[in-house]
Amino acid sequence: MKTIDEYINEILRHVECDQADRDELAEEMRSHLLQAKEHYQLKGETEEQAIALAIADFGGDQEVGEQLQRSLFPYRKELLVLLGGGSILFAALAYLHGAVQLAEPHSLWMTIVILSGLGFLLLALFPAYMGNRKLLMNLYLAGQIPFYFLGLLIIDTGTQAYIMPLQLFGGGLILLTLTLVVLTALKTPVEKKLSKKKEQKRKGVHLFNLLAGIVIVGFAGFFLAGLLIFAGLTVYMLFPLGLIVFWALSYWWQYEAAKKNSPWMWVGAGLTVCMMIMFVVVYMR
After folding, report:
1. 192 touches 82 (CB < 8 A)
2. Which pTM does this prediction carry?
3. Which residues contact 15 (CB under 8 A, 6 or more apart)?
4. How far is CA 160 from CA 109, 172, 178, in A?
């Protein structure tokens, strides 16, 4: 028979939240279940029967967990499933186009995009693994955008009737990814009662880096795709890849500095702007 704590842990497996949120939610559910248990014991039930009845009244662990997840992150599961399934389908269709029409199957690209899509599906099924990893989640999402751009370049080589719908499909995946990035960034942890100033600073860091990420990842993705198409694997690929890594590290640095109200946040933002300007100047030359 399940204990109350085991039941609560099974519920929280379906909820994306950090440890502080987990502790708060667990305490609230434990209090409710203990009250229900005492109610049944006063009616003459044994302790085991009272626990079983309290759990039955509360609901199935998956159902309750998914309701909590939906209240914290509305439609997150559906969007991740859509992005994961869409990524796999887009990779397969672009691969077939390259293999049949161009005799260039792009197997490595397809493998990366399919594995990424499977990752999104797993995150939809097991959201607890992304609890307290908001920044990592956003970096994972943003990291897929260059591969979607590369897929668009692969299918842009054809004039068949299916090319336009496939391009719209790929563009939709990019928009969906950016939507998830924004929703993830702007979600405030439920246990944190932030001051208005701190909340504005936190959201400012996220929005600035999201906009910077669109520029950096977009330019780097096109640059990287061009190198792959015209030069193949080359050492020059380290430049756009390094730019994306720099943006990710700067994002993390600013986020940590903002939590501590450190002026180093502005240093990180300034370095990001300088890197963007330098990259655009080099790219346009």
Report:
1. no
2. 0.65
3. 21, 22, 25, 65, 68, 69, 72, 127, 128, 131
4. 22, 20, 28
User: DSSP of the chain, one letter per residue?
Assistant: ---HHHHHHHHHTT----HHHHHHHHHHHHHHHHHHHHHHHHTT--HHHHHHHHHHHH--HHHHHHHHHHHHSTTHHHHHHHHHHHHHHHHHHHHHHHHHHSS---HHHHHHHHHHHHHHHHHHH-GGGGTT-HHHHHHHHHTTHHHHHHHHHHHTT--STTHHHHHHHHHHHHHHHHHHHHHHHHPPPTT----HHHHHHHHHHHHHHHHHHHHHHHHHHHHHHHHHHHT-S-GGGHHHHHHHHHHHHHHHHHHHHHHTT-THHHHHHHHHHHHHHHHHHHHH-
Q: Which two tokens stand for residue 138?
A: 């956003």
Q: Which residue has the tokens 């626990």?
A: 51
Q: Which amino acid is at 176?
A: L
Mean pLDDT, rounded, for 256-272: 80
From the CB of residue 23, how many other CB atoms can be counted at a distance below 10 Å? Answer: 13
pLDDT-based confidence at residue 193 (cuts at 50, 70, 90): very low
Per-domain boundaries in the chain: 4-68, 73-179
| Residue pLDDT, tens place only, 194-247 | 456 666 777 778 778 877 877 787 777 777 767 766 776 677 777 777 887 788
**Averaged pLDDT for residues 158-184:** 85
